[in-house]
Amino acid sequence: MSSSTQVETVSTGADKAKLAAAAVLVLASIVAFYLLGQQAMWLRVIALLVGLVAAVAVYFSSESGRQLIAYGHESVREVKKVVWPAPKEAGQMTAYVFAFVVLMALFLWATDKTLEWVLYDLILGWKR
User: Fold this and answer.
1) What is the SS3 assignment for 84?
2) Which of 3, 11, 21, 127 has its CA nearest to residue 67?
3) What is the DSSP letter of 62?
């Protein structure tokens, strides 16, 4: 029993124009930053930031921008549902992870040295 959900993205010409305008604004702000090379750095940075803020505003007015905002709201709602561990439990789990990492490092080191000894000393007869 397989039910496939079709996700249909409808992109209007206005949305495509908004996305293109946002891309042009990003490029224009970068170009303005470099064209103002003889000016003070603060003026160049302000020109860059103004262009980027305008591009973000245009992007968020498009359908994909609204979908991104809705996704962010949904993500925040899901994070609020998470049951976070107590600090003591989080500390214990962190200690377990560190202990496991140390044990695995020692195991891999021992395996590496054993294989090195078997291959180079016993099989090939290379003495160092």
Assistant:
1) coil
2) 11
3) S
Domain-wise residue ranges, the chain: 1-82, 85-128
pTM, entire model: 0.57
pLDDT in tens, 55-107: 999 999 999 999 999 999 999 999 999 998 999 999 999 999 999 999 999 99
Q: Which residue has the tokens 């249909």?
A: 8
Structure tokens at 4: 């496939």
Give residue 125's region: left, alpha or beta (phi > 0; psi -120 to 50). left
**Angle of CA points 55, 61, 62, to nearest 5°:** 95
Q: How many CB atoms lie within 10 A of CB 47?
A: 19
Query: Which tens digits make up the pLDDT trace of 104-121?
Result: 999 999 999 999 999 888
